[in-house]
Structures are given as structure tokens and as C-alpha cells.
Structure prediction request, 402 residues.
Amino acid sequence: MKRTGAAGLLAMVPQAVRAGAWAGGSDAPEKPAVRIGLIPLTDCAPVVMAARLGLDGKHGLRIRASKEASWSAVRDKLVAGELDAAHVLYGLVYGVELGIGCVPREMAVLMTLSANGQGISVSRRLAASGAADGASLARLVHAGGRRLVFAQTFPTGTHAMWLNYWLAANGVDPLRDVRTIVVPPPQMVANVRAGRIDAFCVGEPWNHYGVADGTSVHVASSQDVWPEHPEKVLGATREFVERNPNTARALVAALLEAGRWIDASDANRSRMAEVIAREPYVNVPVEVILDRILGRYQDGMGRTWTDAHAMRFHADGAVNFPWLSDGMWFLTQFKRWGLVREAPDYAAVAARVNRVDLYAQAAAQVKVAVPAQPMRASRLMDGIVWDGTAPERYAAAHHIHA
Prediction:
């Protein structure tokens, strides 16, 4: 990927977005102790490891990780100011910006924390009935009978979008052919075991936990839907960023260094797994995290493989850059699934939410290259290419929609 310096990239960002950028003077964090929300998932690792490795202190910060019960709790605490920032679903930030299901609040995506590594699982009973992949699941759904119940983690979140896209690509209408409900990530497997849901889309380690537990079968990975897709982000309110630009910049720098450290070696990934598996964070056996963080997958029905697109946290900064086209993609899905009635100004919303300016400054501090331009092209599972151009046409291009 072609790279450039921070100055060249900033020239592409509208002046209105750059208005809050640091312009000189002391760069000491305005708020040295920051409370960062997280959900017990493998991809909370950069927040945890930045604190455990002392990378926060290197940048004049003290991260106080706050384990939360659900994504709605993260949203509410961010908006109320009880959290300064959070490890959060990409689409949640955009949903709050647009006021979907809540009072609108101006938000900011400061960086992407991870790529890949989520999954779709079905109950072992459903798999035994023949629904062990997308095609066989579609046949079962269209054969009639009981309406299956699928769970995702938040209405505007990434898992809702991966689930909808995967089902639709396999010919299943997620709004009409099945029923979907919201369940917090750590509760997915228990809900399958209790018979309340038939399938779910969630972040790791909960897909692997269900396989190891014998409760569920892994039928697809999120990277099957979109290889190298964005996943969790560092989110905050725009008010917090504008009041504390140095704090926000220092936080991005610390988490960039944490992601770079995790991705540097399998030894570092193993050490990370040992840390976040503990009770204050994810609270699962370390093996449940370790296998998939090293790319070792199994589906629970005898198939094993090494996934070329396992969870990543840095990739020379390609993971972390807040691509404007990534934010715009979530907006296209909001439109596709009826979460917004009118087409948003895709480019304008992404430019004001994704703080490319602040990210570029932090990246320069820790010597992480930035791309030459803020858009990228990706081919999703149905062969359709998304590159940030013609977003309204893209939103309407799919046969199955609201």
C-alpha cells in the first residue's frame, strides 16, 4: 500500500475537520488519567496491553480499563461522560452520530483497533439437522417450519452488519426470513445452551468458546464476509476530543504501540492471550483465546484450518488507520437495512467522525506510516467491490434489503 507523510494526508482533510488539530504549545495530556470502556472480547487487547506494558505512561497517561456489561452500557456511559473513550463497535459510533435508537451526539473514531476475527456460529442441534454452512442454512430456512432466532450484539454494530450481509449473500433475508435479537457477547453460548437462540454472530473468543464447550458450531468467519475488514475502534465523543486533543492524541499513540507490539510475534500474541484471559478482562481459559489469535481454527465438526486473515491489531498501521471508506460502508448498510430513511451525506459524515487529522499526528509521533489517501477498495464475499465511490448506488445494489 502506498504511504505518505502526515502532512500530505492532512491536506486532503477538510479544514473544518482540522480545526481542532493541535497547533503548537505544550503537548502534555490535559487529562492524564483516562477511563476506557471495554467489553470482554479478544480485541480489547490493545487497551489492556497499553496499560500492562506501560505504554500509556510513556505518553503521559494512565489508562483505567472499565469492563462493561453490554454495548448499550458502553454507549450510554460514553455519552454521559462516565467513560472518556472506549473499545467499541465501529457501527455503534456512527449510530450515535446519526441518532439511531438514541438522542444524536457528535462522535469521533480516533483509530481502528483490530481487523478480522469475528464469527457466526449455530447451535449443535441446528448443525446436526444439516445447517452447517450458509447454503444448507438457507435451504433449511426456506423449507419452512419454525422461524429461527439469530443473535447479534447491537443493532448498528459490526456483528449485526456481518450477520445481515452473510445471510443475504446466502439468499436469506435477515429482516423477514429469520428473527434477530440482541444479546451481550459473553452471554451468547449460554443462550444457545438454554435453547433461546439458534445462532449468533459475535466477536472472539465466544465463537471458539462455544466450539470448545460443545454447544455451537462455527459456520463462518467475519473475514469470510470481508477480508481485512475493520472491527473495533477507539471511540469518544467529539466534545471529549475537542476539550482534550493532547489526551486523545497520546491515547492513540499508546494504542498504536500496543497493537504493533502484539502483532510483532507469536510470542507476544501468546503473552497477550495470557493477560486478557484473566478474570478482570475476558475471564476464559487462555487456550480459548490463544488458538484463534494464532490463526488456528476448528469448526466443532472435525474441520481444522489455518486462517490467513486471523485477527490483527496493526499490520504496519494498515489496521489502525481510520479509513473514511470504512466509515462510509457502515452508513451504506444502515441505508440498506432501513436504519436510516434518507441517504446521509456519506463523505461528510465520515470526514467529521473519523479523525484522520489527529490519527496522523499520533502516528507521526510513534513512526507509523499513513496511507497516501483515506479511501481503500475491498471485495466482499458476493464479489461486489466497495471503494467509497457512489455510496448510494452501492447501498441500493443488493437484491435483499429493507
